[in-house]
Write a structure and sequence with these properties.
This protein is of the alpha+beta class. The chain folds into 3 domains: 2-192, SGNH hydrolase (Rossmann fold, 3-Layer(aba) Sandwich), CATH 3.40.50.1110; 199-466, Glycosyl hydrolase domain, family 43 (Tachylectin-2, Chain A, 5 Propeller), CATH 2.115.10.20; 486-611, no CATH class. The chain has helices at 9-12, 24-32, 53-56, 74-78, 84-101, 133-146, 175-189, 192-195, 199-206, 486-512, 532-558, 585-611, and strands spanning 2-7, 35-40, 67-71, 106-110, 150-152, 211-217, 230-236, 243-247, 255-262, 265-271, 273-277, 284-285, 297-306, 312-319, 323-330, 337-343, 353-357, 360-365, 369-373, 381-382, 399-407, 410-418, 429-437, 448-449, 460-463. The chain has a 5-stranded parallel β-sheet with strand order 2-1-3-4-5, sandwiched between helices. Mean pLDDT is 86; it is low at 191-200 and 466-470. Pfam families: Lipase_GDSL_2. This is SGNH hydrolase-type esterase domain-containing protein. InterPro entries: Ester_Hydrolysis_Enzymes (IPR051532), Glyco_hydro_beta-prop_sf (IPR023296), SGNH_hydro (IPR013830), SGNH_hydro_sf (IPR036514). Residues 6-178 form the SGNH hydrolase-type esterase domain.
């Protein structure tokens, strides 16, 4: 990965008398294995003077880089001449130029460290233009959110906590402090082998397993770093033994990860983050300010769940007067969160997990207590069960973070067994799992340890063969245009169609009480581009889609369901086989016309079932 760092003299590495050998760029390069270009220039501001950020970006073509790290603000505060609005405008101008060069570049912003030269280190002290250090840091955090960028806030992860860690000018770090700062940023970025994952690597790895887990590995936690976490993805075929697929340090210290799939997107959330990805390499960050509320603390572990009308929601726990569970509405198309902080009628628990099953809603809190209700908002009724609360000596067994995975008639219940196994880290332990029949949650098998090369902790589970526990409500297929990759384009569209067809079968079955269709076969793409394998794959995809969609259309017609849009009987589709050997406009038109037919028909079928809330 190629990284460029932009900033002032602190990015440059000035230690009060010379440029330190321990520049942030040098340390990050040494620790991560990535190539890092140091483009820091001493004395620069965000939007004023020569070589300011909004100007210096014009000296670079950011297509040449995979990541940009930006760290300004010290001079904007200390010079006492640049207003907050001027700073914000400059940041946005520079970011717009970077994104116009390279829309896929990873953008990371870093807040300025504490300045003891002006205001004696008081972060709330306002300078001559009415700007405090906290105001600048808050602005940088908000700018990052507005641009779906990662942000590192030194206030949350302080290295500079006193003027003794700075040069005599009380502005620039000492060599030792520079090294500590670089190590902190390197940990945030992650090592090269962890960050650089290709789309084919991750997605093809996922397809090798029946189940996936997304959570975190606490490796490195200790008494001075209690909440160390590296987000991790694992796969399993038996739900007990798990294999690490990839780790994602680029997501920061994301704990309590939760994953759900919507069309060809994976949504990921957890304590402090909300992301969307198609390939597990590029992650788009979304605003999580909805989790903040005056008077509330210990706001932990948001999770996705869907109701029986296929609406998406988020659930989390928080403490105000006491512990409570809260719900918000979530739009998986846009990432918008609305109606936050709806209080659920439950028994004041934490680490809430909600799922639907057997026509009911179920809730786990604190990993001991299981409940059921007719509404996800409650009231919930306790399910008496045999999950042990104490050992043979009467000592309390500390479980937390209950999560479930349903496979047929078997439900797997995972939780963290907290043992304090790491000295000085009270909340340390490992994951255990037990099972029950989905029709009787009172009788569980007793816990056994999950096995993995990492210490799997609080996370979530998905069944790969079903694609997701979320239901498809709309299909949006992509046309082929030049330049294009026919194989990958067809695969992405085809995956959406399979999910939609499965949704139609499942929802129609709920509506009529019948099994209206088996799961369609899943065709594998063995290569990209257009060699013989990919050419045959494209032909067979349209063969199968015509067969499966017409099968569904026949079920609708035989049961008297009309098309809401046309008010007529559903029409069978007839797709054109893309047999051309020349990739020309005629071939392209054939494929796009087929996708238009498929998209229209699937969405019309889904619309009928949505009307009946099946």
């Amino acid at each position: 990965m190629k990284i460029i760092m932009l900033g002032d003299s602190i990015t440059q590495g000035w230690n009060g008398s010379q440029v330190t050998p321990y520049t942030l760029a040098n340390t990050i390069e040494a620790k991560t294995g990535n190539t890092v270009t140091n483009a820091g220039i001493g004395g620069t501001l965000v939007n004023s003077g020569n070589n300011c950020f909004s100007s210096v970006v014009n000296n670079y073509n950011f297509k040449d880089y995979d990541m940009v790290i930006i760290m300004y603000g010290t001079n904007d505060f200390g010079a006492q001449g640049e207003s907050l609005n001027t700073l914000k405008d400059g940041y946005q101008q520079g970011l717009d130029k970077i994104k116009s060069d390279n829309p896929n570049i990873q953008i990371r912003l870093v807040t300025p460290i504490r300045d003891y030269a002006v205001g004696s280190g008081d972060m709330t002290w306002k300078n001559a233009v009415g700007v405090s250090q906290n105001m600048i840091n808050d602005a940088v955090v908000q700018i990052a959110r507005n641009n779906n960028a990662e942000v590192y806030d030194w206030r949350d992860n302080p290295v500079v906590t006193s003027s003794s860690q700075l040069a005599p000018d009380k502005i620039h770090p000492t060599d030792v402090t520079y090294k500590s700062m670089g190590e902190a940023l390197a940990s945030w970025i992650g090592i090269r082998s962890q960050v650089v994952n290709t789309e084919t690597d991750i997605l093809s790895e996922i397809e090798q397993y029946k189940f996936i887990y997304f959570g975190f590995d606490p490796a490195g936690e200790n008494s001075s770093n209690l909440w160390k976490a590296t987000p991790a993805l694992c796969g399993s075929n038996d739900a007990i033994d798990w294999t690490l697929i990839a780790e994602f340090p680029q997501l920061g210290n994301l704990r309590d990860g939760n994953i759900a799939k919507y069309n060809d997107y994976y949504w990921i959330t957890g304590t402090t983050g909300l992301y969307r990805t198609k390939d597990f390499q590029t992650f788009k960050s979304f605003d999580v300010s909805f989790l903040q509320r005056d008077g509330y603390t210990d706001i932990w572990a948001p999770e996705f769940f869907t109701d029986y009308s296929d609406n998406w929601h988020l659930v989390w726990g928080a403490v105000s007067d006491s512990r409570h569970v809260y719900v918000a509405d979530f739009d998986p198309e846009t990432g918008e969160v609305t109606n936050s902080w709806q209080m659920v009628n439950e028994d004041h628990g934490m680490d809430p997990h909600i799922w639907k099953m057997n026509g009911k809603y179920y809730l786990s809190i604190d990993a001991y207590w299981l409940y059921e209700a007719d509404s996800y908002m409650g009231p919930y009724t306790l399910i008496k069960n045999n999950i042990e609360h104490s050992d043979e000596n009467g000592k309390t067994i500390w479980y937390e973070a209950g999560e479930t995975l349903v496979d047929g008639d078997t439900i797997y219940f995972y939780c963290d067994h907290i043992t304090g196994s790491v000295p000085g880290v009270t909340d340390s332990g490992q994951m255990v799992v037990q099972t029950a029949n989905i029709h009787d949650l009172s009788k569980w098998t007793g816990p056994q340890n999950v096995t993995s090369s990492i210490n799997m902790r609080h996370g979530s589970f998905l069944k790969v063969e079903s694609g997701s526990d979320a239901t498809v409500t709309k299909v949006s297929l992509t046309h082929i245009d030049k330049p294009f990759d026919l194989g990958i384009n067809t695969k992405h569209n085809y995956e959406q169609c399979l999910s939609a067809i499965n949704t139609i079968y499942n929802r129609f079955g709920k509506l009529l009480g019948d099994d209206v269709g088996a799961k369609p076969d899943h065709l594998q793409l063995r290569s990209s581009g257009l060699d013989r394998n990919a050419w045959l794959y494209i032909v067979h995809v349209f063969d199968q889609l015509e067969l499966e969609i017409n099968k569904a259309v026949g079920v609708f017609r035989s049961n008297g369901f009309a098309n809401i849009r046309t008010r007529q009987d559903f029409d069978y589709i007839e797709l054109v086989r893309p047999l051309n050997l020349m990739i020309d406009t005629s071939y392209q038109t054939t494929l796009n016309n087929n996708w238009d037919q498929v998209q229209t028909t699937l969405n019309d079928l889904l619309a009928v079932l949505t009307k009946f809330h099946a």
